[in-house]
């Protein structure tokens, strides 16, 4: 959202691919002279700052509350601050900081990356503020709904992966590839091999197996490395249709799935440590 407001041609999938160290087929090569990805790591660091800072900290202006502001709902207060921030700072910083502002005013428990919001008209006084406010409210509603849908798909992916691993006679490193995909949803054999501790050939075969089991989706273009993404990313890219209706019943005992999900959580720390040793970054970067 913030990049689009800055007239950048980059999309979310380009950022995900860059964090995974891959270039996806059919995506244009990003222009790098203006370092389009440079703001991402500092932004994540800010979102993970500990609680306790006041909402007025880091505002790019001195705030004088307008009449009626203190009596307004907290969300309207936050949008007013966003409006003034966007006029004072014409970079993407005010829009990127909005999830942090929502947390600081008590509207969310954590800073939610999906709640980046903004409107180019905030930088001018030409548009009527009530109309702008309505657009922002609709934008936030859509962002929250999309975030919940993605969370549902990720949770469904975890349950499905646990079910498949439990049902495979020789799962091998299938569970590892599913865990890694939660934090690095774009994979190729050359990027998965060091994470799994196996050869590139072995990683390629494992990714093919995961694709056959519908844990991954291949999106390779002609003449490129075979590239795979999780179903969630495939849906976001339009490579796969979202499932409709009631999800299929888990084919194994719930207790077994619960045990495997618990194992997923315990072993994520090990995956994070492995990524850090390889200098790839924290799992939240994916």
Structure description:
- With 286 residues, the protein is mostly helical.
- It folds into 2 domains: 2-145, no CATH class; 151-285, Arc Repressor Mutant, subunit A (Orthogonal Bundle).
- Helix content is 51%, strand content 3%.
- It is built from 12 helices and 3 strands; from the N terminus they run ααααααααβααββαα.
- The protein has a 3-stranded antiparallel beta sheet.
- Helix 7 (129-167) packs across helix 12 and helix 9 packs across helix 10.
- The longest helix is centred in the middle third of the chain and has 39 residues, at 129-167.
- The chain is elongated.
Termini separation comes to 17 Å
- Which outline best applies? elongated
* Count of extended strands: 3
Unreliable runs: 282-286
Helix content: 40-55%
- Order of helix and strand elements from N to C terminus: HHHHHHHHEHHEEHH
Largest sheet: 3 strands, antiparallel
Radius of gyration: 21 Å
**Secondary-structure class:** mainly alpha
Strand order of the largest sheet: 1-3-2
Number of helices: 12
Counted up, domains total: 2
Mean pLDDT value = 82
Features of the shown structure:
mainly alpha; 12 helices; single chain; about 290 residues; disordered C terminus; 2 domains; about 5% strand; 3-stranded antiparallel beta sheet; Arc Repressor Mutant, subunit A
SSE blueprint:
Blueprint: H1 2-5, H2 12-19, H3 40-47, H4 74-88, H5 93-96, H6 98-104, H7 129-167, H8 174-183, E1 186-188, H9 189-196, H10 200-212, E2 217-218, E3 227-229, H11 231-237, H12 254-277
Antiparallel strand pairs: 1-3, 2-3
Helix pairs in contact: 7-8, 7-12, 8-12, 9-10
């Amino acid at each position: 959202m913030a990049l689009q407001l800055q007239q950048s041609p980059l999309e979310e999938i380009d950022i995900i691919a860059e964090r995974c160290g891959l270039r996806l087929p059919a995506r244009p090569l990003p222009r790098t002279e203006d370092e389009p990805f440079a703001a991402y790591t500092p932004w994540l660091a800010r979102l993970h700052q500990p609680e306790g800072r006041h909402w007025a900290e880091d505002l790019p202006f001195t705030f004088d509350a307008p009449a009626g502001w203190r009596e307004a709902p907290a969300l309207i207060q936050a949008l007013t601050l966003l409006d003034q921030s966007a006029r004072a700072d014409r970079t993407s910083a005010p829009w990127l900081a909005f999830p942090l502002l929502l947390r600081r005013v008590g509207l969310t428990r954590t800073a939610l990356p999906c709640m980046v919001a903004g409107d180019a008209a905030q930088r001018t006084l030409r548009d009527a503020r009530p109309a702008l406010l309505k657009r922002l409210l609709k934008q936030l509603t859509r962002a929250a709904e999309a975030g919940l849908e993605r969370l549902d798909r990720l949770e469904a992916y975890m349950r499905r992966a646990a079910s498949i691993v439990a049902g495979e006679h020789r799962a091998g490193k299938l569970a590892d590839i599913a865990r890694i995909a939660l934090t690095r949803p774009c994979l190729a054999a050359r990027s998965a091999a060091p994470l799994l501790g196996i050869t590139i050939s072995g990683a390629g075969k494992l990714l093919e197996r995961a694709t056959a089991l519908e844990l991954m989706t291949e999106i390779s273009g002609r003449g490129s490395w075979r590239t795979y993404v999780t179903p969630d990313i495939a849906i976001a890219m339009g490579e796969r249709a979202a499932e409709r209706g009631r999800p299929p019943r888990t084919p194994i005992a719930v207790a077994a799935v619960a045990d495997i999900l618990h194992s997923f959580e315990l072993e994520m720390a090990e995956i994070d440590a492995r990524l850090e040793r390889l200098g790839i970054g924290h799992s939240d970067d994916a």
